[in-house]
Amino acid sequence: MTLSFEELKIFLDEKADQYNQVDFIENDPIQIPHRFSLKQDIEIAGFLAATISWGNRKAIIKSADKMLDVMGNSPYDFVMNHSEAELKALQNKSIHRTFNGEDFGYFIRQFQRIYRENESLENLFTIQDLEINFQHAIERFRSQFLGTEKHRSHKHISSPYKNSSTKRIIMFLRWMVRKDKRGVDFGIWKNVDQRFLSIPLDVHTGNISRKLGLVTRTQNDWKTVEELDVTIRKFDDKDPAKYDFALFGLGVTKELI
Hints:
A two-stranded antiparallel sheet has the order 1-2. It has helices at residues 5-19, 39-51, 57-70, 75-81, 84-88, 101-117, 135-146, 167-177, 203-211, 222-235, 243-253; strands spanning 94-96, 99-100. The radius of gyration is 18 Å and the shape is globular. It has 257 residues and is mainly alpha-helical. Strand 1 (94-96) and strand 2 form a beta hairpin. The model has no long low-confidence stretch (mean pLDDT 93). It is built from eleven helices and two strands, in the order H-H-H-H-H-E-E-H-H-H-H-H-H.
């Protein structure tokens, strides 16, 4: 598909407008944090839902429901007040594919430690001077959330320093940071600017980006995230992540195939 810069911008703006609507929530994992109003509940439910966001969206939502049930549908209260017996009962529980009960319990412990010291996860994702995206912020978050002791659960939080696209964390960041006038993304983090957001890069968004000539790299890795950053910010440098709706929507509907 060959379009001029102006044609491509018009096309992507139209698609972002088409898919960035409240009815997007119903079939997407973002419905999980949308069940809550307390900031910490939204963060915890959102982070857990994003962490298991690979594969079929219905299955992701079902697995996230399972985690909410365990937490009595009060994520923050459970994180801060759970008993060791409750975490022990999770050990052999199946959650979602390779994310199992042991991983879930590990995340609960780490959340408790973080929230004892921080009012919000936002504190762990601040952008520093001269940074142009969340690469270093994600690594700082990883080191604070995971700590130094090795654990099987570390694999569930990808590292851009290891050239991972970190799709799930970037999606979570879009949910928390982007000031969405449509009621889809939350925008509850007030001290992080949405202009630093990237597109969550997966099979859908990667393939569509290549079809439209937005990227040239063939891998869905961090280098491609940064290549897409450069292109997409030319269309809108104040709200680049809105184009996630366009690329994802085009990928799911197979409109360009």
